[in-house]
Amino acid sequence: MNFEQLLYTEVLSQHNSMQKAADALHISKSGLSGAISQLETELGVQLFDKSTSGTKLTPEGRQLLSSVSDILRDKNQLENIASVVASPQEHQSLSIQYMNIMLKPFMTTFIDGYSTKYHNLQLNISCHEFSSIVHRVANQEIDAGFVAISSALDDSIADLEFTPVSTSKLVLMCAPDNELTHLNRPITMADLKTQRFSMFNDEFHDRLFDRLQFQCGPLPLIARIDDSWAMEQVVTKLNTVCFGRVFQGNLSSTNELSNLSWIDVSNIIDDTFVLGWLTNPNHKLSEQARSLIDEISAQLKKNA
């Protein structure tokens, strides 16, 4: 048994055709058939049933396929790890999680600097909520998180390192023709009671929404969303309102939120947040990772 035979089994199971699998593997049909037959003889199990309709896994073959895939996956993982161990400077990674829809400056900075600085760096980036980011940073599952915090939540990150980048205001976003845009006075709690809400997946917004309901009574919530296009659609077509940070709107990977009207709410809520990097003081970042984070921070400040 060898890895080639296992790979041939995996590919043949995907194509259900000896000729198509052979073409995908760039080998002859007879060579593929011989390798599969050798493996079946060694295992003592018929893996494939060959008929005029194609070459398909037998029930026994289906049972063994997951083990074949696991072995090939472990082989690839071993080779990848060995490559990193042999040349650590050529194989670095940076895992970042961020809140809400602020993806644009992260990706543009990485893409712009890739050919000159970051071609040896693998960037893993995804959107998560605050508590998930804190948990993963604390457990060193990711290298850094970009979060928005208020002073009331400082205790939740007491054992981590927070590096501020900018401050931002929370605003109420609504459609340009929403009645709130025609107020000639500061918005009030009574005004909020006339509205339907949509929410970004953000636990700070959840807490704020809960506090507003303590004062206003139940407020109708239409949708919870983590995409700017979807939010713009709900706000404009269903005439909902949503909370969002000015910084967040400016850094969205699309321009949908700029189509909405932004209403100041500083007279009824604490609307100031600090945005910055959350890292673990016990986790050392590589030189390239630190450089990329610094460049992203500079880009974020330009858009603040």
TrEMBL record:
Family: Belongs to the LysR transcriptional regulatory family.
Species of provenance: Secundilactobacillus similis DSM 23365 = JCM 2765
GO molecular function: DNA-binding transcription factor activity; transcription cis-regulatory region binding
Organism ancestry: Bacteria, Bacillati, Bacillota, Bacilli, Lactobacillales
Keywords for the protein's UniProt record, in alphabetical order: DNA-binding, Transcription, Transcription regulation
Protein name: Fhu operon transcription regulator
Pfam families: HTH_1 (PF00126), LysR_substrate (PF03466)
PROSITE patterns noted in UniProt: HTH_LYSR (PS50931)
Span of domain HTH lysR-type: 1-58
